[in-house]
Structure formats: structure tokens, C-alpha cells
Recover the amino acids of this structure.
């Protein structure tokens, strides 16, 4: 499955521009996390592509299923099965909303970075320039600790970067922020 096919699914399932940006952001961060966590070079190329697909598609039917947790991921799964994608991709997508145990690094990575991308976007938007390039790791870390800021971004989920991925929070924020800054044009920030 290619990135273009994933973007086509996002379109077919009627995603809003903001949701597409969330998908793109998670895809960029997942690709960066694959580079950090996959140690066997021979596996990296496929892993980077697969991890990005998980980032792109994990919420693909979130809006069309009206945010119903029961239905969420089911429409996406149907599409992915038609395209015969690897089961590990489907499992990681199910795992991000607790429908399947998160057994692979890919599944653990989307769980940890999903909410962080939202926190980083919120950090960009509170600045006068509203630009990712002005966001610093320290300011994201500070906002992470401020429980009244972006309350929807689950700190517990983000914090699993340490317990499940063995990446310290500060480094994790740095990887995600850099990946998003490198694609700020596509993210419109
Ligand atoms: Fe998400």
C-alpha cells in the first residue's frame, strides 16, 4: 500500500482538512520514530513506510463514525482488508484505541505519539506567529506539565514513550517536534 492510497482512503472517508493534517502529522512522526527504533537497516525501509501508513490511517474513520468508539477503526479496517495490507498495520490501528493489545513497537509508537502531535499543534497555535518553527522542546515540556493546557491531550498516553518505547519524554518530544517542523508547510503551520 502506498501513501497515495492512504490519502485516497482519508478522502473517501470524508475527512476534514484538520483531520487530514492530524493524519499527516502522525505519519511524519511515525516515520521519524521508525528511524529511531528500528535497528536492523534491512528492515528500515519497509518499516518507515508501514509506520507512516499507521500514522496516516489510525483515525481515518473517526469523523465518519461520529467518534463512536465502538465503530471507530471498523470502516478503515474494511478498506485495508480489501487492499490486503499487512495485519500488523491493522493491529496497530486497532491498538491505538485499545481494541487490540499493543504488541509491536509500531503499535506502541502510534499510541504514544498520537496525542503528542495535538499538544505540539496547540503549542504552535498559542504563539503570536502560530508557527511550528518557533516552538521549542522546553515549551512543549512546560505545557505538558500544565494540566490546564490542551486538556484533551492525554499526558498518560504520551508518557508511555518511556515505559513502552524506552525513549525519555524530552527526547520523544524533540523527535516529534523536529519531524513536524520539517513538514510545516504540509501541516499549514
Ligand atoms: Fe489520532
Amino acid at each position: 500500500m502506498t501513501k497515495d492510497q492512504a490519502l485516497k482512503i482519508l478522502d473517501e472517508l470524508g475527512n476534514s482538512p484538520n483531520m487530514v493534517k492530524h493524519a499527516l502529522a502522525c505519519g511524519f512522526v511515525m516515520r521519524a520514530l521508525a528511524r529511531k527504533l528500528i535497528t536492523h537497516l534491512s528492515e528500515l525501509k519497509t518499516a518507515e513506510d508501514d509506520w507512516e501508513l499507521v500514522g496516516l490511517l489510525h483515525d481515518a474513520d473517526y469523523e465518519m463514525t461520529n467518534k463512536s468508539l465502538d465503530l471507530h477503526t471498523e470502516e478503515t479496517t474494511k478498506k485495508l482488508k480489501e487492499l490486503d495490507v499487512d495485519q500488523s498495520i491493522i493491529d496497530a490501528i486497532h491498538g491505538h484505541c485499545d481494541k487490540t493489545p499493543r504488541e509491536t513497537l509500531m503499535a506502541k509508537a502510534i499510541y504514544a505519539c498520537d496525542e503528542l502531535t495535538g499538544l505540539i499543534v496547540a503549542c504552535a497555535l498559542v504563539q503570536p506567529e502560530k508557527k511550528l518553527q518557533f516552538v521549542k522542546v522546553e515549551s512543549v515540556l512546560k505545557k505538558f506539565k500544565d494540566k490546564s493546557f490542551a486538556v484533551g491531550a492525554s499526558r498518560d498516553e504520551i508518557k508511555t514513550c518511556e515505559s513502552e518505547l524506552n525513549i525519555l519524554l524530552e527526547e520523544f518530544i524533540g523527535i516529534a517536534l523536529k519531524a513536524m517542523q520539517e513538514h510545516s508547510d504540509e501541516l499549514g503551520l
About this structure: Residues 3-187 form one domain. The CA atoms of residues 28 and 179 lie 6 Å apart. The two ends are 28 Å apart (CA to CA). Residues 22, 26, 58-59, 114 surround fe (ii) ion (CB under 6 Å).
